[in-house]
Amino acid sequence: MNATSPAPAAVELVRVRKEFGSAVGVADVSLKIGQGEFLTLLGPSGCGKSTLLGMIAGFLTPTAGKIVVDGVDITDVEPYRRDIGMVFQSYALFPHMNVFDNIAFGLRMRKLPKADIAVEVRRAIAMMKLEGFEERRVSQLSGGQRQRVALARAIVIRPKVLLLDEPLSALDKNLRAQMQVELSELHRKTGLTTIFVTHDQGEALSLSDRIVVMNRGEVQQVAAPVELYRTPANGFVASFIGEINALPVARYERAGAEAALVLPGAGRLSAAAPAHWDFTHGVEVRAFLRPEHVRPARPGEQGPNILRGVVAAHIYQGSHTITRVEMEGLGLIETRVTGADIVGTHPVGAPIALVFDLGEAVLLAAR
Ligand SMILES: Nc1ncnc2c1ncn2[C@@H]1O[C@H](COP(=O)(O)OP(=O)(O)OP(=O)(O)O)[C@@H](O)[C@H]1O
């Protein structure tokens, strides 16, 4: 899906706002969600994700603004009339009912004929791979199975929009990874417009067509995962998505095709300026550089962009090691190297030289 111009909007939020007394939970959010799009609301705790989702579902009334689904203003429509399926972290299933009855609940409320209910429930059961569990009580299921029942219950009504509020956060790491794949498959098979809430950036990056990064009730950036990772719009997004080194404010110098940063007390870094670095010579900028773009210098290596520091810590992560280096004028800088050799070659406290690949940095105007 295109990051800037989604297909015809399935959901449109127009200056949606929610105040709780004097506190602002969601501040004037406008957003178009494309038909069939998998859109994720991502942000730290308290940024307003659940409040925004609650307003789309109809559990919360906006203080101002409008919510439109398939061209119809539903701002004042009761939740159960919105044709929206919802799954929560806590499952919210009926523990005394069996799997079949849990999934059939929404269809019975809609007074569908019994035979149709059986057909639809069987379809949802097959889609969520729950065959054989129809008669089981929910209390006799594992966490992953319960979440699959919750998903089946949400999709069985053939909703216009599927809302998922941290549905995987109660699951352990392996099950979570497996359920991510299942969610992806479910989305592919149903083509349902999906709005997913998470504070887990890895989950957001792997599942979404587009991600909405929120902070303090406000949208910081809306973009496809790769675009968000490579070209974050501001310091908050840069620091929130993936690991990144935020360098101190520096002076930007430009001479022909070469750009340089003069970092007070640390030195100078330079690069062939990428085309999008259109800063004026002499302005103050901040550079953000991922750990994979900072590497230990080879023994005896000379050249530009090499700065020196002292190893502060190693964090061994299996396939790679994150090494933290204390650098004068820069503070702690992280480098990411394959394997664990660096732990032996550069023990904590040893001097180390790092090569900065400045051309890969995200550069933002310092304000
Ligand atoms: N019923 C309420 N009364 C007062 N303040 C509220 C209420 N619900 C939410 N808030 C506030 O609104 C802001 C947004 O909350 P919200 O639950 O939407 O955040 P979130 O991003 O979903 O967080 P989390 O990831 O922790 O669930 C927070 O500052 C929260 O304290």
List its salient traits.
367 residues; alpha+beta; OB fold (Dihydrolipoamide Acetyltransferase, E2P); binds adenosine-5'-triphosphate
Secondary structure elements and pairings:
Blueprint (H helix, E strand, L loop, with lengths): L8 E12 L2 E12 L3 E5 L6 H9 L6 E6 L2 E2 L10 E5 L10 H11 L4 H14 L15 H13 L5 E5 L7 H18 L2 E6 L2 H7 L2 E6 L2 E6 L1 H6 L4 H6 L4 E2 L3 E6 L2 E6 L3 E6 L11 E6 L4 E3 L9 E11 L3 E8 L3 E8 L2 H5 L5 E6 L5 E4 L2
Helix pairs in contact: 2-3, 2-4, 3-4
Catalytic activity: ATP + H2O + polyamine-[polyamine-binding protein]Side 1 = ADP + phosphate + polyamineSide 2 + [polyamine-binding protein]Side 1
Pfam family, one: TOBE_2
Function: Part of the ABC transporter complex PotABCD involved in spermidine/putrescine import. Responsible for energy coupling to the transport system.
So what's the CATH class of the largest domain?
Alpha Beta
Total helices: the number is 9
The structural domain count equals: 2
Overall mean pLDDT: 92
Radius of gyration: 25 Å
Largest sheet: 6 strands, mixed
What gross morphology would you assign? elongated
Structural class estimated from helices and strands: alpha+beta
Total strands: the figure is: 21
- Report the uncertain regions: none
Head-to-tail CA distance between termini: 33 Å
Strand order in the sheet with the most strands: 6-7-8-3-9-10
User: Going by CATH, what is the homologous superfamily of the largest domain?
Assistant: P-loop containing nucleotide triphosphate hydrolases
CATH-assigned fold name of the largest domain: Rossmann fold
Q: How do the helices and strands follow one another from N- to C-terminus?
A: EEEHEEEHHHEHEHEEHHEEEEEEEEEHEE
- The helicity comes to 10-25%
**Percent of residues in β-strands:** 35-45%
Name the bound molecules.
Answer: adenosine-5'-triphosphate
InterPro entries: AAA+_ATPase, ABC_SmlMolc_Importer, ABC_transporter-like_ATP-bd, ABC_transporter-like_CS, Mo/tungstate-bd_C_term_dom, P-loop_NTPase, PotA-like, Transp-assoc_OB_typ2
GO molecular function: ATP binding
Subunit structure: The complex is composed of two ATP-binding proteins (PotA), two transmembrane proteins (PotB and PotC) and a solute-binding protein (PotD).
Family: Belongs to the ABC transporter superfamily. Spermidine/putrescine importer (TC 3.A.1.11.1) family.
